[in-house]
Amino acid sequence: xxxxxxxxxxxxxxxxxxxxxxxxxxxxxxxxxxxxxxxxxxxxxxxxxxxxxxxxxxxxxxxxxxxxxxxxxxxxxxxxxxxxxxxxxxxxxxxxxxxxxxxxxxxxxxxxxxx
Length: 115
Prior knowledge:
The chain is mainly α. It has one domain (about 30-110). It has helices at about 10-25, 35-55, 65-85, 100-110. The longest helix is centred in the middle third of the chain and has 24 residues, at about 35-55. The radius of gyration is 22 Å and the shape is elongated. The termini are far apart. The mean pLDDT is about 75.
């Protein structure tokens, strides 16, 4: 008789990995208004600061590096704007007006203008 242990099939490992992954992300599946507000603050604040620093350093060559960083924050702003458009950012359907950054107001005005 052969006493070798049989390895676990990859299908079983895949299902176990999927269940473990699902257990890890379940707490992030519910929208949170406070987390949403914090994401807006920690995105728009640095973005505005980078714009100010770029303005102040327009004659210095390192303003290009600031522009690259600002581009990263612009991507975050787009993601927030996109999630707000789907009503999935705060869970309230639409974000409360006090929490809307100017880009969302502009986006909302553009979306309702019929263009």
